[in-house]
């Protein structure tokens, strides 16, 4: 006969089959194997570690390996992911970023804390830091020329439609004014070298400008991120009055399609290949000498196949000067761009990323960007 322990474990395994329980309650990862027996939710291995950060609220065990009492099993059966999320996610603002299993630890950790520890989605007042339309505070910002991080005052104003920062606390004029209409923010912990590192980009004279910031407090950084998303959401609602929320949400902030090193030739194909850091941001393929440069050395517009843009593996037979063997040729209506990757895997990944963009038909406003690139000196 099966022991009580075995029966309980078998019942826990069955509970994973109930609707909602087959994905992590917090990041959506498939086949969670852990559970919080104080909250009644099933979570993935990664999120279970973050639940341990709020041990006063959430206690976790392995569904398969740890012993389960009958009362714990009953509790898990009475709650489950769907019921718990209905309770803890009652009023999540539309613009608030819901992390997936692919997102950085900071976003997932703060989502879990916001849900269960701070209970931000049960009380609108607790959402003030990112939903008020105005935010002011100090962030550590990387210096453009010396790479040093210095404390800078930032102000986000939805009414003015800008994010600005000041080099001195008492400065009357901001050092930079970033318009909300071209603002993007993406967490880049590996690139910046701090778990709370955020890359903010905006367009200055139609060229991309990067700034890199962080704050010691994870909540502070994620609040800034969601405040930017809120400002972008309200701007887009006005700019595109007929668009649905589901159409606007992907436009609030975006992660880069791909980043990494490739070699490239200079403007003339007779020039040697140089190693550069590349960022594929929507239809802009930018290259930098260093990943943390403020400005790109150059940008290539990637249009659609309908407009004669093509990506090909390999390089023209006459090509010389590349150290890396795995070439990529981008054909645009005006010229060819030649790149080389260090490994075949890199080449495959870059071609797939470029092909995704080329396969997408161009939007009316993207033709104006393409025209700007064509007439650039």
UniProtKB/TrEMBL annotation:
Where is this chain primarily localised?
cytoplasm
Q: What are the record's GO terms for cellular component?
A: cytoplasm; plasma membrane
- Do the record's keywords include Cell membrane? no
Q: Where is the PH domain?
A: 132-233, 255-359
Gene3D superfamilies noted in UniProt:
Arf GTPase activating protein, Pleckstrin-homology domain (PH domain)/Phosphotyrosine-binding domain (PTB)
Has the keyword Zinc-finger been applied to this entry?
A: yes
**One Pfam family from the record:** ArfGap
The record ties this protein, via SUPFAM superfamilies, to:
ArfGap/RecO-like zinc finger, PH domain-like
Q: Give the matching InterPro entries.
A: Arf-GAP_dual-PH_domain, ARFGAP/RecO, ArfGAP_dom, ArfGAP_dom_sf, PH-like_dom_sf, PH1_ADAP, PH2_ADAP, PH_domain
Localisation: Cytoplasm
Molecular function as annotated in GO: GTPase activator activity; phosphatidylinositol bisphosphate binding; phosphatidylinositol-3,4,5-trisphosphate binding; zinc ion binding
**The entry's keywords:** Cytoplasm, GTPase activation, Metal-binding, Repeat, Zinc, Zinc-finger
PANTHER family with a match to the protein in the record = ARF-GAP WITH DUAL PH DOMAIN-CONTAINING PROTEIN 1, ARF-GAP WITH DUAL PH DOMAIN-CONTAINING PROTEIN 1-LIKE PROTEIN
Tell me what this protein is called. ArfGAP with dual PH domains 1
Q: Give the source species.
A: Anabas testudineus
- The encoding gene: ADAP1
